[in-house]
Amino acid sequence: MSTWSPALEIYDDTLSPQRFNGALREGNAYRGPPSQDIDDAWDKILYHGGALVRISRAQLLKINASEYAAEYTQEMGGGYIAGIEVFHQLHCVNMLRKATYMDYYLPRMDEWKDQQTLRYHLDHCLDMLRQKLMCDPDLGMVTYVWAKGWKQPFPDFSTMHKCRDYTKVLEWARENYVHGINVADIERAPGALERDTRP
Q1: Domains of the chain by residue range
Q2: Maximum distance among all alpha carbons in the chain?
Q3: Range with the poorest average pLDDT among 42-56, 62-76, 113-127, 150-164
Q4: Among 169, 166, 182, 171, which residue's Cα sits nearest to residue 49?
Q5: Is residue 58 within 8 Å of 83, Cβ to Cβ?
Q6: Confidence bin at 140 (pLDDT 50/70/90)
Q7: How far apart are CA 135 and CA 140, in angstroms?
Q8: Which of 167, 176, 172 lies closest to 53, judged by CA?
C-alpha cells in the first residue's frame, strides 16, 4: 500500500466488489492486437502520460522523498515536482504490452530506436512491477474449473476483488495537474541540489 500521499484524501475505507476479467482468449478495451482504440483506452487511464502535480515542502517531507527532489521555480508557482505512482506502474504495463507487439510499435516510437535504452526501460518496468507486487501481494484464491472436452482443470482467473474507485485517481490528477508544463521545459530552481548520477 501507499505511504502517505496528498492523493489519499480521495479515499475513505469504501471498497467496491469487482470481478476481474481473467479470460485467456477474450479481448477487452485494453488488450488484443494493436489498434488505435486500444492505444486510446490506455491513454485515458494514464492521464497525460503521468500527470505531473505540485506538492509542498511539508508534503515532500511527509512522503520521505529524496533530498534531491526537484523544485519548480517561483515563476512556475514553486513547490516540488511529483507524479502519482499508479500512472508510472500503468505506463510500465503498457510499455510491456507494446513490447509484445514490437513489430508494430518499433517503427512508430522514436524513443525505441535506441535498443539499449529500450532494454533498460523494459527491465526497469519489469522490476518496478515485481517490487510493487511483492510489496502489496494479492492473497486472493484462484480456483480451478473443469471444461467439457478437456482432461485437466483450468485456473479461473476471473476472481472477485475489493477495489478502490480508479476514476477518483483520474479526477484528483486532473484537479492537481500542472497544466502546460512538459518535464523537458521545467527550469531548474536556483540552488537546486544535484545527484551525481540520474536515477
Answers
A1: 29-185
A2: 70
A3: 42-56
A4: 182
A5: no
A6: very high
A7: 15
A8: 176
